[in-house]
């Protein structure tokens, strides 16, 4: 039989007084998937992650975690670990002592034996005996991840895990998450940044003002956007601008004096422009989207939703 879904959320509503934080949210995450939750500030990402972690109960809707319906009691569902709003750490304890305290609290000897291993996985071995009071945001995030790993979760929930991480820190943390997913753990993480999600996630859910604006594979999201803005650098900007002006179906942006031409239009029209530039003996030195197709789709979807 197939493994149960890690997350199955249907029609989830959550309000705080007058503020509707989640409005009919659906989320499906199978085992072994890294699923990105993105959206502008206040979109409802942290609220949704909090429900998955058992920190709050939805006003209405149904939520199943790892095949078990979530009840009305506040409790971290079996098999789930992670954090929202930054990991909770004891500042006067060292990194190793923080993890030992967690293992002692759970009364789990196997957990205690894994401490060195998880510290190594997140790259904190060298600072394991330093008090966390002096830890940077990135180090705190890594220690939070180490604490979650100790529990050997089948569903890992992370709120903005790449916050504060430098490029090598990101690479290391992403490696940890990818190995977990390969072993069947589902990961749901939030981010403001499409490039982070693109590097890590196979599927994404975009929230805008509490509603799902898109949910599905990243490739499908890129297909949502038909027309991108492209910047074109040529050997003769003035002549290129004239050729572009004579090409039907093309919109031209950017300042008149700028050496860079910014155009948007359907791909066949862009193809036509490039052919015409070459025929006019104008060299095309660069042609690239102003923002990635995913970023453009994200912006288009969230703008539409927030404009309502
Ligand atoms: N405990 C609370 N009390 C009142 N309002 C809340 C509470 N928690 C969240 N909200 C509101 O619910 C909405 C969703 O907030 P949430 O923190 O889930 O968004 P988010 O997508 O995580 O935002 P950010 O990217 O800024 O972290 C916001 O309007 C927020 O002000």
UniProtKB/TrEMBL annotation:
GO molecular function: ATP binding
Ranges of residues in domain ABC transporter: 7-234
Assigned keywords, A-Z: ATP-binding, Nucleotide-binding, Transport
Record SMART domains: AAA
Keyword S-adenosyl-L-methionine applies: no
Xref: InterPro entries: AAA+_ATPase, ABC_transporter-like_ATP-bd, ABC_transporter-like_CS, P-loop_NTPase
One Pfam family cited in the UniProt record for this chain: ABC_tran
Similarity comment text for this entry: Belongs to the ABC transporter superfamily.
Protein name: ABC transporter ATP-binding protein
Organism: Kribbella lupini
């Amino acid at each position: 039989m197939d493994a149960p879904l890690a997350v199955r959320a249907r029609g989830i509503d959550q309000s705080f007084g007058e503020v509707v934080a989640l409005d009919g949210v659906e989320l499906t995450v199978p085992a072994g998937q890294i699923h990105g939750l993105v959206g502008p500030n206040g979109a409802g990402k942290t609220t949704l992650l909090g429900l998955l972690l058992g920190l709050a109960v939805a006003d209405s809707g149904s939520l199943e975690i790892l095949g078990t319906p979530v009840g009305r009691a506040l409790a971290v569902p079996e098999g789930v670990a992670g954090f929202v709003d930054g990991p909770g750490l004891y500042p006067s304890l060292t990194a190793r002592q923080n993890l030992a305290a967690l293992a002692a609290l759970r009364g789990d000897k196997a957990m205690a034996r894994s401490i060195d291993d998880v510290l190594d996985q997140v790259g904190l071995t060298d600072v394991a005996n330093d008090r966390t009071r002096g830890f940077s945001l990135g180090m705190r995030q890594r220690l939070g991840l180490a604490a979650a790993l100790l529990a050997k979760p089948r569903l890992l929930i992370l709120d903005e895990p790449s916050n504060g991480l430098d490029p090598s820190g990101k690479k290391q943390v992403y490696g940890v998450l990818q190995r977990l997913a390969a072993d069947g753990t589902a990961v749901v993480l939030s981010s403001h940044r499409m490039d982070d999600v693109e590097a890590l996630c196979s599927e994404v859910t975009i929230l805008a003002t509490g509603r799902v604006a898109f949910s599905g594979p990243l490739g499908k999201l890129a297909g949502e956007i038909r027309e991108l803005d492209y910047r074109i650098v040529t050997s003769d900007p003035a002549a290129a601008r004239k050729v572009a002006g004579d090409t039907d179906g093309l919109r031209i942006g950017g300042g008149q004096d700028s050496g860079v031409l910014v155009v948007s239009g359907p791909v066949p029209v862009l193809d036509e422009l490039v052919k015409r530039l070459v025929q006019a003996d104008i060299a095309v030195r660069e042609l690239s989207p102003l923002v990635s197709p995913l970023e453009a789709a994200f912006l288009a979807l969230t703008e539409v939703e927030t404009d309502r």
